[in-house]
Write a structure and sequence with these properties.
three-stranded antiparallel sheet; disordered C terminus; mainly alpha; about 5% strand
Length: about 290
């Protein structure tokens, strides 16, 4: 069976051997068919997605040539039919487990379910496996194509949610010291995701860095009020109140704890710099006094 990889440069391979698909249009054609794997894609859709509003003269013949080349490459490697002809359409046959994007979505769903079921160890393993499938920017070879851009945005947003879920699983496993630096970098890269601020506050507090955790809250609130005219979400406000009260629910868990205790729905805030200070974790005994 042929493996198809879209989470990075577009590739098709058999037994570890990457096939030579061809130039830009051949890669774009493969990407369209893989995105719609096991569904017929009409010739008109293919022409529109590959050439846009101004297709060249003789575009139907050009499409036939591209289909023929792709079919020859894939089917000679697979030893069976891969690109099927349907009335006015083409269909690429591929098992979900042979498409990295579908594997990613399946593992992400399983990890999210495990987190909701209070199994953070299983969640962290599934989510790490999902993230390991990424080899770079998704659909990298055709990122300038209009058909690819909504899918790229969807995949990038899904990936960020999975990173957040994986960090929440790590926090539930008591790994706060290992995620503080990562969260600091993520907040700098994705300053509009409020959930990252929430996770960072919890991780800093569990590292005994209460004042820095509260500074993260102030920074998020300043961005929200000044730039968007809204207050932080109730979830973020609850975490601030819990830190001020040194609520025991925020202490590092002695064993895997329900992820729902953190109460961290995803939301967006505007850019703001991180609070000053290093990001290495200190022992819990160093926690600041109220």
């Amino acid at each position: 069976m042929i493996d198809y990889r879209l989470l990075g440069p577009i590739e098709a391979g058999v037994d570890g051997r990457v096939l030579d698909i061809g130039g830009h249009k051949q890669l774009a054609l493969l990407a369209v068919l893989v995105l719609r794997a096991n569904q017929p894609v009409t010739r008109d859709v293919l022409v529109d997605w590959l050439w846009g509003e101004h297709p060249p003269p003789g575009v139907q013949h050009t499409l036939d040539v591209h289909i023929s080349r792709l079919r020859k490459t894939l089917e000679s490697a697979a030893g069976q039919q891969v690109v099927l002809t349907r009335p006015g359409a083409y269909l690429l046959r591929a098992a979900a487990d042979n498409v990295d994007m579908r594997q990613f979505e399946r593992l992400a769903e399983e990890g999210h379910r495990a987190l909701a079921e209070n199994a953070p160890d299983r969640a962290a393993a599934d989510l790490r496996e999902a993230l390991a499938l990424w080899r770079g920017a998704p659909l990298a070879d055709v990122s300038d194509e209009a058909f690819a851009q909504p899918e790229i945005a969807r995949l990038n947003d899904l990936r960020m949610g999975i990173i957040e879920d994986r960090i929440e699983a790590d926090l539930a496993l008591g790994r706060h010291g290992g995620v503080v630096s990562e969260l600091g970098a993520l907040v700098a890269e994705q300053p509009l995701r409020e959930r990252l601020y929430q996770l960072l506050m919890v991780a800093l507090y569990r590292c005994g860095r209460q004042s820095e955790a509260l500074a993260v809250y102030r920074q998020a609130r300043l961005a929200l009020v000044d730039e968007l005219g809204i207050e932080p979400s109730p979830a973020l406000q609850r975490i601030e109140r819990s830190i001020l009260a040194q609520d025991a629910s925020l202490d590092p868990p002695p064993r895997p704890a329900p992820a729902s205790r953190l109460g961290m729905p995803a939301r967006r805030v505007s850019r703001g710099p991180l609070p000053p200070g290093g990001l290495a974790c200190r022992p819990p005994s160093a926690r600041a006094s109220p």
